[in-house]
Amino acid sequence: MLGRRSRSASVPARDGVSVASLITGGFVRVAMDSDASTTEGPGAGTTPAGDERATVGFVCVQNAGRSQMATAFAERERADRGLEERVRIVTGGTDPAEHVHDVVVDVMADAGFDLAERAPREVSFEEIRACDLVVTMGCAAEDVCPASWAGENRDWGLEDPDDATREEAVAIRDEIERRVVALFDELERAT
Predict the structure, then answer these.
(1) b/e sequence 122-136, b meaning 16+ C-beta within 10 Å
(2) Residue 161, class by beta-carbon neighbours within 10 Å (0-12 exposed, 13-18 middle, 19+ buried)?
(3) Structure confidence by residue, pLDDT tens digits, 90-137
(4) Cα torsion angle, 38, 39, 42, 46, sign
(5) Close Cβ partners of 106 (under 8 Å, ≥ 6 residues apart)
(6) What is the pLDDT of residues 56-77, one digit of tens each?
(7) What CATH number labels 12-189?
(8) Where are the alpha helices (DSSP H) in 29-163?
(9) What is the pTM of this model?
């Protein structure tokens, strides 16, 4: 599969450098735009020249459920751990929905996040190419990762909460939170 990589952080990310090596070298690049008016300013989905942060992208088809939840949890982890200067976050979808799924807005509100104003957005190949790690939510990376991309892809294989019951959506949310915390534990240990 195009863009599919091992789940190990020791897999080469860019130019033979692993994600763990990038972090150990003092920077982590995690690219995630939470919406069209990103938390890091206009154009935050692309990596500005000279930006040495590690970039992680959370991507799914509609960018209306799982990737929005992952982005919210990742933004919190990045802030709580003081990694803003080392990690950049980008999110998007290959075929964005009109709005974040209502059940996702509801269950994330229970966890202290307001996703009501977030807008699903399309992720570009350029944004993906700038990522050191792309996390897909259960969708194949075949149409997400460009052939020239040398980063790592992890597919979390999560159910889509769009047609889920509230209880199922809570379980999906809790699993995403667990995985995001584990990812940031991994990133932090590498420093």
Answers:
(1) ebeeebbbbbbbbbb
(2) buried
(3) 999 989 999 999 999 999 999 999 999 999 999 988 898 888 899 999
(4) negative
(5) 166, 169
(6) 999 999 999 999 999 999 999 9
(7) 3.40.50.2300
(8) 66-80, 102-110, 125-129
(9) 0.75
